[in-house]
Design goal:
The complex is a heterodimer of chains A (about 110) and B (about 110). Chain A is built from no helices and eleven strands. The radius of gyration of chain A is 13 Å and the shape is globular. The N and C termini of chain A lie far apart (about 35 Å). Chain B contains no helices and nine strands. Chain B starts with 8 loop residues before the first strand and ends with a strand. Chain B is about 0% helix and about 45% strand. By secondary structure, chain B is mainly β. In chain B, the strands form two sheets. Chain B has a five-stranded mixed beta sheet, with no helix packed on it. A four-stranded antiparallel beta sheet of chain B has the order 2-7-6-5, with no helix packed on it. Classes of the chains: A mainly beta (about 110), B mainly beta (about 110).
């Protein structure tokens, strides 16, 4: 398994502001993934973050809105920019471990008011 | 990527065995089948993974028929704390573009 820590766990944000979510893993990993889960919905992959290169975004997500950093093999950040109420979601960091298994952090619950 | 189909919701009572079936007709030769459990306001938690036949761990069993076009997660003697959403995922490259379906909401009643 993997120990994945996310900060903040919860936050209430003002419309128009930006918030950066941090993800720390207990050991080095090649790939880190960011998901969004809107209330009552399933998880949607935002992007894949590789160390040393730009993140790869899924359809419907853009770098200007969700900039991602991956400065080393154990850490990544996701910024939610210019937030609106529609961005109120749980944001989840995950990593692959054991070949075919992904592990998730506990998530960061953002409420935009 | 193989698409998965699960029942939207299921109800059960404490002490019963619960079987949740997932269809994945387009599963590829290298794909594994993985199930996750998610409680409200928490990240998904790995339950079990298999490739074929039957896999059992301390939490659940996973049954996969020979054609691998479906799989069944079996939870023995559920309790109230097993109320959660259960996701079936199919893929061959771990976290690469793992796509979540809608999942199955299991509600366990007393």
């Amino acid at each position: 398994s993997a120990v994945i820590s996310q900060k903040p766990s919860r936050d209430i944000c003002q419309r128009g502001t930006s918030l950066t979510i941090q993800c720390q893993v207990d050991s080095q990993v090649t790939m880190m993934f960011w998901y969004r889960q809107q209330p009552g919905q399933s998880l949607t992959l935002i992007a894949t973050a590789n160390q040393g290169s730009e993140a790869t975004y899924e359809s419907g997500f853009v770098i200007d809105k969700f900039p991602i950093s991956r400065p080393n093999l154990t850490f990544s950040t996701l910024t939610v920019s210019n937030m609106s109420p529609e961005d109120s979601s749980i944001y989840l960091c995950s990593v692959e471990r054991g070949g075919n298994t992904i592990y998730f952090g506990e998530g960061s619950w953002l409420t935009v008011v | 990527l193989a698409k998965t189909t699960q029942p939207i919701s299921m109800d059960s009572y404490e002490g019963q065995e619960v079987n949740i079936t997932c269809s994945h007709n387009n599963i590829a030769t290298n794909d594994y089948i993985t199930w996750y459990q998610q409680f409200p306001s928490q990240g998904p938690r790995f339950i079990i993974q298999g490739y074929k036949t039957k896999v059992t761990n301390e939490v659940a069993s996973l049954f996969i028929p020979a054609d691998r076009k479906s799989s069944t997660l079996s939870l023995p003697r559920v309790s109230l704390s097993d109320t959660a959403v259960y996701y079936c995922l199919v893929g061959d490259t771990g976290g690469f573009k793992t796509i979540f379906g809608a999942g199955t909401r299991l509600f366990v009643k007393a």
